[in-house]
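We treat protein structure as text, and this decision shapes the records that our systems exchange. The tokens are whole numbers drawn from a learned vocabulary of local backbone shapes. One such record is reproduced below, unchanged from the form in which we store it:
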Amino acid sequence: MRSLSSREQSKSLEARGFQVSGLVREGYPPFEILDQIESGRHELAVLGTGKAGRLGQVVLGSASTKVLHASPTSVLIVHMADESQDGRILVGIDGSGASESAVHAVGELCDPQRVKVHLSAAIRLSDAAALGGDWAGLASKGRKKLLVQLRSQAENDFGRARRSLEERGFAVTSNLAEGNPAEQLLVQAEEGNFDVVAVGSRGRTILERVLLGSVTDRVVRQSRASLVGRRTA
């Protein structure tokens, strides 16, 4: 399929009612893009992954991934686009401020009349037990009590995310799995044929190691499109 030129891309966006401006700069692409994000106070950066291919390991060294990790605002990385039907978005939830930023990004950037949202969380007992404090105490009392507490925490996280999205008019579903968070999220992304997988940039609360972190990189490499949400001031 022939790639569109910059002029053709601009015309395509203008035909949909967008105001479009363009700029060509010389320099190292990631640095130039990041400079434009900051100087232009852009709320979202949208990038493709270039010619490396959807699962190519070179993606991790590409301009898109460098921008992803350094950008102060949300980043949407697209491997493949399909506009033939309404969208389905999978959002990874872990109760952290980072995953709340992903929910916020979905709510701000997507049209509730055109997309449906599915919330997903995965709990892994070994991770929770290693966090210390109350979680370590629960772990010492046995798997059952820890699992009940983790499920209760996840349901509370789902509730907050669901209310935030439903208030904006989105149709929302959710499910909770047990196992490796990255693998669970990617399996759901493939089996559910989701158009976008949305995650936060990193976890910061009691379940910070359970979902986000390296998961973001794996999702970016392997999902069709990924939205990494960051809440801006």
About this structure: The chain has nine helices and seven strands. The longest strand covers residues 115-123.
